[in-house]
Design brief:
single chain; 115 residues; mainly beta; 7-stranded mixed β-sheet; 4-stranded antiparallel β-sheet; 11 strands; globular
């Protein structure tokens, strides 16, 4: 079993920055991918950024150049640095991990971008 706990969400003005973190614990032997998703009110969940086990990254077009995903291998954690935030980035951000045969979700952290 794997547990994921997100932190770092909050209220920020347009153009501001936030850094999300996700700490993973439990029986983690091989991680295939770590990712951040988000779900805005009334919308479908969408992938924001992913980092694979060998370090490759991919981003949604809407966040390219503004968000950066990184992995802390020592702490088995992932971070999402979000810069130049826009009101349309407002959503619940969820951490996701893929291991062989299973995947896990965190509870999510709210990010609100508003003046």
């Amino acid at each position: 079993q794997v547990q994921l706990v997100e932190s770092g969400g909050g209220l920020v003005q347009p153009g501001g920055s936030l850094r999300l973190s996700c700490a993973a614990s439990g029986s983690i032997f091989r991680i295939l991918a770590l990712a951040w998703y988000r779900q805005a009110s009334g919308k479908q969940r969408e992938m924001v950024a992913v980092i694979t086990g060998d370090g490759n990254t991919n981003y949604a077009d809407s966040v390219k150049g503004r968000f950066t995903i990184s992995r802390d291998n020592v702490k088995t954690a992932i971070n999402l640095q979000m810069n130049n935030l826009k009101p349309e980035d407002t959503a619940v951000y969820l951490c996701h991990v893929t291991v062989p045969g299973k995947n896990y979700w965190g509870q999510g952290t709210q990010v609100t971008v508003s003046s």
